[in-house]
């Protein structure tokens, strides 16, 4: 059930991608998702260097023979080197975030890499389709980390109508109901970050996972709107200090100072008070840290149950 064209495009069993989360989406998480039949993705974030990416790819190859991807964060200064590493290592899929990947598309496509940009608008979706993207991750503002302005519910159907390549919905999806809703909006699959961050295999600090389990529907806030780089994180002391500085019209340098290293501090050192605990709005739904395989199996089973409930008869 729920096999879509995206599964054939990417060589996967279930149309579920794991979001590229800086410091969290390492070789171990990516390999676990790929082994479970989804598409695991290694993230570069904005601080990784090309040698580390190469090592992560090689580690993942030792953990799975199934396809996996790399997420290239376009604000990272090493993007051209990442493109070379990905091609040399024979990675099959690249997702991009936080910018327009247009100038790297021809080289990646010529090397046979499937390119899936993350887009926050119809305009960028149309542009990257013209430039040769194979599919799109359409991410609503419900997502964690660096975000756009439109909601998943409003954005996905508008992009589906505007392009002819497969659309993958992201932002606010963490269970079978969200998965089914995304397909109903015309998407061929989903990408999830927050749900996979709260998995057994994700090696983020335990305090981060605990913060997720304690979070509710109103636990996230967007920082950095004034800087042009809005980022959704869990409300904590860092978020309050950031908001205070922003409201006082602090300079970019001052805000950068507060933000620098904050994600690493939370993810690796477990500082969930003055660190940046990125999370999507759906974090309030997560009540359990589970193995990746169970996350995927539970989503597929719940989606089928919900579909049967709507139809009033059994399918599949
Ligand atoms: O990339 C993400 N989410 C991220 S990346 C990240 S790493 C980071 N680390 C420290 C501080 C800040 C970030 C954390 N979260 N999501 C994909 C995404 N891309 N969401 C929105 C966009 C986007 C926004 C504008 C994509 C393209 C875009 O284009 C503008 C343009 O150039 O046309």
First-to-last CA distance: 6 Å
Strand order in the sheet with the most strands: 1-9-8-6-5-4-3-2
- Taken in chain order, the helices and strands follow as HEHEHEHEHEHEEHEHEHHEEHHHH
Shape: globular
Largest sheet composition: 8 strands, parallel
Low-confidence stretches: none
**β-sheet strand percentage:** 5-15%
Helix % is: 40-55%
Summarize the topology:
Elements: H1 5-10, E1 16-18, H2 27-35, E2 40-43, H3 50-63, E3 68-73, H4 79-88, E4 93-97, H5 105-110, E5 114-119, H6 122-130, E6 136-139, E7 145-146, H7 152-162, E8 167-170, H8 176-184, E9 189-192, H9 194-197, H10 206-214, E10 220-223, E11 231-234, H11 237-247, H12 252-259, H13 262-267, H14 292-311
Parallel strand pairs: 1-9, 2-3, 3-4, 4-5, 5-6, 6-8, 8-9
Antiparallel strand pairs: 7-11, 10-11
Helix pairs in contact: 2-3, 3-4, 8-14, 11-12
Bound molecules: ligand TUI.
Ligand TUI binds at residues 22, 45-46, 73, 97-100, 118-120, 124, 139, 145-148, 231, 263, 278.
């Amino acid at each position: 059930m729920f096999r879509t064209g995206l599964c054939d495009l990417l060589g996967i069993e279930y149309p579920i991608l794991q979001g590229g989360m800086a410091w969290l989406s390492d070789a171990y998480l990516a390999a676990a998702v790929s082994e479970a039949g989804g598409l695991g993705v290694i993230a570069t974030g904005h601080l990784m260097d090309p040698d580390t990416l190469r090592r992560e790819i090689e580690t993942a190859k030792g953990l799975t023979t199934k396809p996996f991807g790399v997420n290239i964060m376009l604000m990272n200064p090493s993007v051209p080197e990442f493109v070379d590493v990905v091609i040399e290592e024979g990675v099959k899929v690249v997702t991009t975030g936080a910018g327009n990947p247009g100038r790297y598309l021809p080289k990646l496509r010529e090397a046979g890499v499937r390119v899936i940009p993350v887009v926050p608008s119809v305009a960028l979706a149309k542009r990257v389709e013209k430039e040769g993207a194979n599919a799109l991750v359409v991410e609503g503002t419900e997502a964690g980390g660096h975000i756009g302005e439109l909601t998943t519910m409003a954005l996905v159907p508008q992009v589906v109508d505007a392009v002819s390549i497969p659309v993958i919905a992201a932002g606010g999806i963490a269970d079978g109901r969200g998965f089914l809703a995304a397909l109903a909006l015309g998407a061929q699959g989903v990408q999830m970050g927050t749900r996979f961050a709260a998995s057994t295999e994700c090696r983020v600090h335990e305090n981060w996972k605990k913060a997720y389990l304690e979070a509710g529907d109103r636990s996230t806030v967007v920082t950095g709107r004034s800087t042009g780089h809005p980022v959704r994180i869990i409300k904590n002391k860092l978020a309050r200090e950031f908001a205070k500085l922003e409201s006082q019209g602090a300079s970019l340098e001052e805000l950068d100072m507060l933000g620098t290293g904050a994600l690493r501090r939370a993810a690796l050192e477990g500082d969930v008070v003055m660190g940046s605990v990125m999370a999507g709005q759906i974090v309030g739904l997560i009540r359990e840290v589970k193995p990746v395989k169970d996350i995927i199996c539970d989503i597929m089973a719940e989606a089928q149950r919900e579909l049967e409930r709507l139809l009033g008869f059994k399918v599949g």
